[in-house]
Write the structure tokens for this entry.
Amino acid sequence: MTHADHAIVVEDLRKEYGTTPALDGLRLTVPRATVQGVLGPNGAGKTTLVRVLATLLRPGGGRAEVAGLDVVRDADAVRARIGLLGQHAAVDEELSGRQNLELFGRLYHLGGRRAASRAGELLERFGLADTGRKPVTAYSGGMRRRLDLAASLIMEPEVLFLDEPTTGLDPRGRTEVWEAVRGLVGGGTTVLLTTQYLEEADQLADAVAVVDHGRVVAEGTPDQLKAGLGADRVDVVVRDPARLAEAAAAVGGAAGAGTAARAGTGTAADPGGVTVDRDRRLVSAPVRDRMAALTATVRALDAAGIRAEDIALRRPTLDEVFLHLTGDATRNARTTDTTGMPEATTDGAAV
Amino acid sequence: MTTHVLNGHVLTDSWTMTRRGLTHWARHPVRVVVGLAFPVMMLVMFAYFLGGGMDVPDYREYLVPGILTLTMAFGLEGTMVALTQDLNKGVIDRFRSMPMAPSAVLVGRSLVDMLESVLSVLVLLVVGLAIGWRWHGGAGEALAAVGLLLLLRFALLWVGIYLGMVAGKPELVQAVQILVWPVAFLSNAFTSPDTMPGWLGTVAEWNPMSATAAAVRELFANPSWSGGGSWVTEHAVLMATVWPVALLAVFFPLAVRRYRALGA
């Protein structure tokens, strides 16, 4: 593939704040008309990457091209071809949704009449047409984000940057934004989406780059990444600590992990296998089929005569993803916000 | 970052940004009225509550130029708050990610704030006339007085833009809002520095606000309530020009550099 086939080309990108590297030789290529997820914990360099690509921040070294244009040399031309949805809803809260879109339309030099008609179209498309003169302060979080997204799309950008678009939104707002983003992809826009949530990348992205310490540590489709993780996990809290090893064998077998239990005292262990946390009397094992695994686990424990206080299915945490990808066990202490995604399924279902 | 100050859209974009400010006024008429009423309230309070205790003839004639100057100084915080909010809400990031003239953000801000100050001056002059203040000089001198007031406002506007970008956080904005008071009162706005303890009086005399207030009094031919003699009071009009120009010479480049450094 040549550069012409790529909407975004990032080569050896560097940026330092003081002596702390935020981007440390990051490389990434994004084919046109795809959704690229950039997954990583707080402080991994995701926002710095977006700010450099959106011409808001001058890189310290390396090179970045967006829509075939250099983000430093051709910053003005890049600006005419991108849309940016930053971490905060970057709209004028004192104005109405329509006034916001007209303001931004004029600043894109559409002229008054076209700015007004474009504002009308976008309000309609994002379900904000009936908000009337209401100022943005009266909007819900989801509505604000949709308006923000509408403002990013005034010029039908070739490349759209979404920096943690659903952070701080309730589940309904999140669904609204996801639906809006999905609606865009058909139109040939290239989307670069940063997120802390594996599930979000899974929902929206064609390809995911896992970023840590300002570098890409893993790349692949969401399925490829998840396949390596044993996807979901079953957690069992055992009543009698003396029977933890037995329980680990039972749960591991039932969940289909087929990996021998490895006793440990901390929470960290091989995330691909069964883990045992003695302090919390917790056995955790990866599962292939959520529902089948849950039933099998209950049966296996019952057959072995082991009493469980709690059994729950959950998604792997971002910690576990990183542990798996980087083998860096010290990370547990660093990221407190792990998956953060509320479980709509059987989380905490006690047996 | 290629920051073309003149990228061909400066005028249209600045006008769009100014219109944005005017739309804020239209959406919050009460806030505009309160903003205009605040200096009027100060004027009336000082004229009627304290004026009686002032041992000077025609205290109101002395007071109106003082309040006019004070209002120019207080405008600083409005500029600061507006800029801090845009920065914190990420609105400036959006502007900077768009192919608009980068300077339009600050030019628009200053136009809106200057318009507000012109309105403020007009309202105060009308209320001043209503409570017995008069100007005794010519029309040209009166215009020069208004010009010097707006020059001070313009200089402080760029101080406000710079501080707004430096402060960043609302708490620091609040600190400046409080500090404006002693700085404003340590001047000849309400009383002659001759009445203050020695060194304080000297500081008050050299306060840029004192220069503007004294110059405005001179041009309106209002009483100056000063024993006279000190160099600054003798050269009020000169100082009322030098001070704002000096402030601009320092803070305009600082503000512009700071704005550009948002991308560093």
Notes: Residues 257-272, 329-351 of chain A have pLDDT under 50 and may be disordered. The CA atoms of residues 156 and 303 of chain A lie 60 Å apart. DSSP finds twelve helices and 15 strands in chain A.
